[in-house]
Design a protein that fits this description.
heterodimer, A: 139 residues, alpha/beta, Rossmann fold, five-stranded parallel β-sheet, 5 helices, 5 strands, B: 585 residues, TIM Barrel, nine-stranded parallel β-sheet, 50% helix, globular, disordered N terminus
Chain lengths: 139, 585
């Protein structure tokens, strides 16, 4: 039997928006589910988020934004991740993101967008299922 | 100079607690005994028989703050109530029943919808629309770059311009925002904190241009920088200079803008960040105490500025707890001002409040249900005696409100005001055993928190210790867990769900072109203004900030020379430093 290493998650707040209630709850819920969680704090630029993700060698990035700046900031984050060769990192997002924006965000590689009212158990399951293979094979 | 009133206050809390053992009770001792006996009979015979056939829905009932809720309240639960000391008459100490002698029989509350999106032109149109529909006061929502002290053309503002509020970088934008709105006919509230002095300076400048006397300028700057550190978290400068800037405005207004409310001490953001009602009440009043102390330290007498302090609370879902919170807030503040700060002017004891229905209770699922939530939250605010009210729009869990949704929100207030009849008598719930019991509980529980904060050395040290941040994060997590475990039902979210939501309006979207237009206008203005004057104004500001002078007069000069918010903030950042968030998860 092998012991699986803990899933490492970065919860990040891009942009100037200061609504961190959801991000903190998600960070805590994932931690309570046995993951290692790093929370960036507020007002992070796309560069800072990708740099932290690289330094902390995370498997997952959760982006939280409620200001409407996702259409500008998310593509930047995805581009920087790609440039750093981190395309295998699982990225999900949450906040106030209109349905009509979702297809375009998924197209640039954001695996899932969660809206208000999402249960943390749904998030835990989502992260576990989407990282299982990666964690088990150690790649 | 006066010593801090902390020691007196500990004594005061003790006084309030002992006071409840007084002899001026509303209820007759003999009658109380009879009621008690009968209540016990009822509880041991009638109730168990009934429960046997019809079990209660839960084993324990509690408010959102965790105050246990009994099956029934009787005079026993408020037996120590002293009518004159604890309730009094409207317009008189301790103001539990209302701030003014006739309350809504005379003047209704101000219907003030927090609005702002896109460019100054778009928001100007929204303001005019709302005024036409019967709104009685303006309230400006600024976008994130404005709130955090960045011009629209700063790289950090990219993607954010006009998204969450209106983009204001200079007096030029503000002139457009108030085009065709005479300032002597409206009152304006501005949700602005770090750059509050700059926006107030712009408002003063527009008033000057319109020829409105400064003493006639009516409105409010939120200017509550303390709660920024643990609730709204849009801080720019470290705590000490932030408090200095807040106090500069309080001092300046006390001397030059007598109709302006220099500060709106805000519990709303504390609540939205996840606190419960007791914490909201306690932390807000603790902040209030800190502002009073900080202003007293400048040698200004309490009665010279206390009448201009105003407050801002949320109205959440638990109907009676919210009403009790508003009543307790007025009573507790009056007691604090009188006992702790020895205020003499009756107006110094007034807690004038603005209330906003709670944004975090709105659901993205079945959004039309939010109309109902907003209706009873605003009813609670009115039954709690608010002076001013914002009602959220039902589409706000999805986007900034569209015109149709904001009209329904405003109509909700008008329905309460003109159709429900609740405005015809003062404090109609006063005397309800439950309401009075809860009002006492809210006050006592809030006081215990205030004692703890005092013991920590006040608000600033409590912030440094991460006390508020931890308290709020814990409450938010607890609330979330309760919803997920279905210990609390959220209609449409964890129960009574539907496959497809009905959204009967077209959601508002801020067009990306807004940013381009705003940036172009700003850059054109920067080229065309007298840049020699700009440099002089900024040099002077640097100098005055260095010397720790009151910065309001210099900032007014600067904005009149079309110096931008970003430029002023940059100078202040260079003198005061920049705040780095203390992260508490």
């Amino acid at each position: 039997m092998t012991t699986e290493r803990k899933i490492r998650v970065l919860i990040a707040k891009p942009g100037l928006d200061s609504h961190d209630r959801g991000a903190k709850i998600v960070a805590r819920a994932l931690r309570d589910a046995g993951m290692e969680v790093i929370y960036t704090g507020l007002r992070q630029t796309p560069e800072q988020i990708v740099e932290t993700a690289l330094q902390e060698d995370v498997d997952v990035i959760g982006l939280s934004i409620l200001s409407g700046a996702h259409t500008t900031l998310f593509p930047k984050i995805m581009e920087f991740l790609k440039n750093k060769g981190m395309d295998t990192v699982l990225v999900f997002a949450g906040g106030i993101i209109p349905q009509e924006d979702v297809p375009a965000l998924k197209k640039i590689g954001i695996k899932e967008i969660f809206g208000p009212g999402t249960s943390t158990s749904v998030l835990v399951k989502f992260v576990q299922e989407n990282t299982r293979k990666k964690i088990a094979t150690g790649c | 100079m006066r010593k801090s009133g902390k020691d007196n206050f500990l004594g005061f809390c003790e006084y309030v607690r002992i006071k409840h053992g007084g002899f001026n009770n509303v209820f007759d001792e003999r009658k109380l005994k009879e009621i008690s006996k009968e209540r016990q009979r009822w509880e041991t015979t009638k109730v168990p028989n009934w429960i046997e056939r019809h079990p209660e829905r839960k084993n324990e009932f509690s408010t959102l703050s965790g105050i246990p809720v009994k099956r029934l309240y009787t005079p026993e639960n408020v037996k120590r109530l002293d009518y004159m000391k604890d309730l009094g008459f409207p317009g008189e100490h301790p103001f539990t029943r209302g701030l003014h002698a006739t309350m809504y029989r005379g003047r209704l509350w101000t219907m003030r919808q927090f609005s702002g999106f896109g460019t100054a032109e778009q928001t100007n149109q929204r303001f005019k629309y709302l005024l036409k529909e019967g709104e009685t006061g303006l309230s400006i929502a600024f976008d994130y770059p404005t709130i955090t002290g960045y011009d629209s053309d700063n790289p950090l503002a990219m993607g954010e311009v006009g998204q969450c509020g209106v983009a204001i970088s200079s007096l030029k934008d503000m002139e457009i925002l108030f085009d065709g709105i005479p300032l002597h006919k409206v009152s304006t509230s501005m949700t602005i904190n770090g750059p509050a002095a700059m926006l107030l300076a712009m408002y003063v400048s527009i008033g000057d241009k319109q020829g409105v006397l400064r003493e006639k300028l009516d409105g409010t700057t939120q200017n509550d920088n303390l709660k920024e550190f643990f609730a709204q978290k849009l801080c720019i400068f470290p705590p000490k200079p932030s408090l200095k800037l807040s106090t500069d405005i309080i001092e300046y207004c006390a001397r030059h803008l007598p109709s302006w409310n220099p500060i709106s001490i805000s519990g709303y953001h504390i609540r939205e960040a996840g606190s419960n009602a007791v914490q909201e009440l306690a932390f807000t009043l603790a902040d209030g105490i800190a502002y009073v102390e900080s202003t007293l330290e400048r040698g200004i007498k309490v009665d010279e500025f206390a009448p201009f302090l105003s407050f801002f609370f949320a109205s959440h879902n638990n109907f009676f707890e919210e009403i009790a919170k508003f009543r307790a807030a007025r009573r507790l503040w009056a007691r604090i001002m009188k006992e702790r700060f020895n205020a003499q002017n009756p107006r110094s004891l007034w807690m004038r409040m603005h209330v906003q229905t709670s944004g975090c209770t709105l659901t993205a699922q079945q959004p039309v249900n939010n109309i109902i939530r907003v209706a009873f939250q605003s009813l609670a605010a009115v039954l709690g005696g608010t002076q001013s009210l914002h009602t959220n729009s039902f589409d706000e869990a999805l986007a900034l409100p569209c015109e149709d949704a904001v009209r329904v929100a405003l109509r909700t207030q008008q329905l309460i005001a003109y159709e429900s009849g609740v405005t015809d008598t003062i404090d109609p719930l006063g005397g309800s055993y439950y309401i009075e019991y809860l009002t006492n509980e809210m006050e006592e529980r809030a006081m215990r928190y205030i004692d703890r904060i005092d013991a920590m050395g006040g608000v600033a040290s409590a912030i440094e210790k991460g006390f508020f941040q931890k308290e709020i994060a814990d409450s938010a997590y607890k609330y979330q867990k309760k919803i997920e475990r279905k210990q609390r039902t959220l209609v449409g979210v964890n129960d009574y769900t539907v496959e497809k939501d009905w959204v009967p309006v077209e959601l508002l979207r801020v067009h990306p072109k807004v940013e381009e237009e705003q940036v172009a206008r700003l850059q054109k203005m920067k080229k065309e203004r007298d840049n020699r004057k700009v440099k002089e104004a900024l040099d002077k500001l640097h100098d005055e900030a260095d010397k720790d002078r009151n910065l309001m007069p210099t900032i007014i000069e600067a904005v009149k020379a079309y110096v931008t918010i970003g430029e002023i903030t940059d100078v202040l950042r260079s003198v005061f430093g920049e705040y780095r968030e203390l992260i508490v998860v």
